[in-house]
Design brief:
Number of strands: 34
Oligomer: single chain
Strand order of the largest sheet: 17-20-21-23-18
Largest sheet: 5 strands, antiparallel
Distance between the termini: 22 Å
Structural class: alpha+beta
């Protein structure tokens, strides 16, 4: 038995080995999963296999299985080509269960994927369908490539770059450039994000707009995919709000208003993608929400989750069973490295701090008003009672006033929206990154979008507020306890994957303008939007090196079975969603900024890098199918050549 590289393949990566079997008469046969699926008699002449079976000593199946248990999976595949008996034993389920857990180093407490039909097929899925073979490199961009996005049909994809162009590509077997638009004529510095609308007729492109005095903010452009004309432009501040589609014709943008040195409010607007004849008398914009920002933080990275897709049967994974298995595995083996678990809390309910009583010196007029927060009151009481000098830090006073306004001038959350209802009505959630302790994004805010808010009709400022309600409340806040550098939704929109770089355990932030140090390791959290809880342990393998005050966004993407992410270590990474294992590293020459699975074929993956390139990756199975089959040498001719050589 001999294991070598396939000499006739230019794309087989070093990690993929092809098994060779020395058969009688000097013949050589390649063993693959495709060949193992058929009986030996169907691949060649029946007489040859019968002769081979007569030459081999008869072994009991139990003894043969015991021998196979000590072989690697490549050797088992090769042995399956010998005869019918060996082929039958090589397909034993217990054998492939042992090979599966041993090869992928998975805890045996983790059950098999609920959609798997056999252990052999599950081994083949992880080994043969990962898009890890580089088949094409696109070099049309002339600067760092920042983002990639596929159309919902999978026929096109778009790329954004610091060369200030957005390019649309044809996703044919050989990918080709369809259109390129430069945004420099609109005073853009670069393009950074793109997204196709639901019916793939419009393309949202987000970029950095350079205004007077070189001040930068964001702008969103909408491009028609029929003739690639520009339909509209919308200001977007800050630029890393990115923007997103709410439905086929309406998009969400942001606007930032500073109230003080450390306090601001973010207003999220609903915009119609284009102004037609009917819209002359109908609003093209409407204010959705207005949120308060504390400690120099802002809302960033806006996306919409459609909860109607949660129960799509072809996308659900058995996470309940997996969670139970993870608890068993954790009880058996305790590791020293742990990931910080996000704390999920509801802003519609009172916290323990809010429920605590104030100081004894509080004035009676304040006690009668239950809406007042204790922070500003206690500060003023201390000044009145002489316990604190009247001259205080400006930032401290601003923070206390902002805290007071947030508690007394925020519209309370609708309690009915926070309680799961028996009636399954369509739901959409607005999801974004935010913060409360420092300016670096370390929390995820979630706000439900009501049906009457999904159109620009009605008042421009949205639902009327009372004179004392300045801000909207959030339905949920998830604290990640680290710097968030990426987010992505699963195809069914139930699970939110979050890249973050953890803060030191127990670190206390004393200055909002000095965020905590962050780890080089990137943790990928998995959040269930149905239960608002974290699922499973963090995924790890990728790394980042940018310091905490310069940290940038690294885009990730999720398919039915896999999740992929870029990294600053010049690699892209692919994990299996069910088993939590890293399956592949994809090489680039610089930082990998973005990855994108084809929505209709998860065996196709794109990666974009600071090395100015886009790489196209396909699975070994697809590459093998696309290659022409090599003709097998005839037995007589091969024997004659061997005799001549001798």
């Amino acid at each position: 038995m001999l294991l070598v590289e396939d000499p006739d393949s230019d794309v087989t990566p070093p990690s993929r080995r092809v098994a060779l079997l020395n058969v009688p008469d000097g013949g050589v046969r390649y063993a693959t999963f495709d060949e193992q699926s058929d009986e030996p008699a169907r691949r060649g002449r029946a007489g040859d296999n019968e002769t081979m079976e007569r030459r081999l000593p008869a072994l009991p199946d139990s003894l043969l299985l015991e021998i196979f248990m000590h072989l690697e999976h490549e050797d088992v595949l090769s042995a399956s080509l010998v005869c019918r008996q060996w082929h039958a034993v090589s397909r034993d389920e217990f054998l492939w269960r042992q090979l599966f857990y041993g090869y992928y180093r998975i805890s045996r407490a983790v059950p098999r994927h609920p959609a798997a039909t056999s252990w052999l097929e599950e081994f083949k899925r992880l080994y043969d369908t990962i898009p890890c073979v580089e088949v094409q490199t696109l070099k049309e961009h002339h600067d760092q490539v920042l983002h990639l996005s596929f159309s919902h049909s999978g026929h096109f994809f778009a790329s954004c770059s610091k060369d200030c162009t957005v390019k649309v590509w044809n996703n044919d077997p050989e990918i080709s450039l369809l259109h390129s638009s430069s945004m420099r004529r609109f005073n853009w510095g670069y393009t950074q994000f793109s997204q196709f609308n639901a019916d793939d007729t419009l393309l949202l492109v987000s970029g950095v707009y350079i205004g007077p005095q070189q001040a930068s903010s964001g702008e969103i452009a909408v491009i028609s995919l029929d003739d690639f004309t520009l339909l509209s432009r919308v200001r977007n501040k800050p630029y890393d709000v990115f923007g997103c589609w709410l439905n086929e014709t309406h998009l969400i943008s942001g606007k930032l208003h500073w109230i003080g040195n450390m306090t601001s409010c973010s207003v999220l607007w609903l915009n119609k993608a284009f102004q037609d004849v009917e819209s002359e008398n109908v609003n093209v914009v409407k204010r959705l929400f207005k949120f308060q920002n504390l400690n120099a933080s802002t809302i960033r990275t806006v996306m919409v989750a459609d909860c109607r897709r949660h129960d799509s049967p072809d996308l659900i994974l058995n996470y309940e069973e997996q969670r139970a298995a993870a608890e068993i595995a954790a009880a058996l083996t305790r590791t020293s490295q742990t990931c910080s678990v996000p704390h999920v809390f509801d802003l519609g309910s009172d916290s323990e701090d809010e429920a605590a009583s104030g100081s004894e010196g509080r004035r009676s007029t304040d006690v009668d008003n239950p809406n007042l927060g204790p922070g500003l009151e206690e500060l003023l009481d201390d000044i009145y009672q002489g316990r604190r000098p009247p001259v205080i830090n400006e930032h401290l006073l601003e923070a206390k006033v902002a805290e007071y306004l947030g508690k007394t001038r925020t519209r309370p959350a609708d309690s009915e929206l926070l309680i799961p209802s028996e009636v399954q009505e369509p739901k959409k959630y607005l999801i974004f990154t935010m913060g409360s302790l420092t300016y670096s994004p370390h929390q995820i805010g979630i706000k439900r979008i009501l049906p009457d808010q999904m159109t620009t009709s009605g008042p421009v400022l949205g639902k009327e507020r009372s004179t004392e309600e300045f801000f909207d409340s959030l339905d949920h806040v998830i604290d990640i306890h680290g710097h968030i550098i990426g987010m992505g939704l699963s195809p069914d929109h139930r699970y939110l994957y979050v890249n973050s770089r953890a803060w030191p355990t127990g670190y206390v932030i004393s200055d909002p303008m000095s965020p905590p140090p962050i780890a080089e390791e990137i943790d990928m959290h998995v959040l269930d939007l149905k239960t608002m809880q974290e699922e499973r342990q963090c995924l790890r393998a990728h790394r980042a090196y940018t310091p905490n005050d310069e940290c940038f966004f690294i885009f990730l993407d999720v398919s039915r079975d896999f999740v992929a992410s870029g990294a600053e270590d010049k690699h892209g990474y692919i994990w299996d969603r069910h088993y939590n294992i890293c399956l592949a590293k994809l090489q680039h020459d610089d930082v990998v900024n973005s990855v994108a699975f084809s929505p209709v074929d998860q065996e196709l993956l794109l990666t974009a890098s600071d090395d100015y390139t886009i790489k196209v990756w396909r699975s070994p199975r697809v590459v093998r199918i696309a290659q022409p089959r090599r003709p097998q040498p005839r037995k007589l001719l091969f024997s004659w050549l061997m005799n001549v050589k001798q």
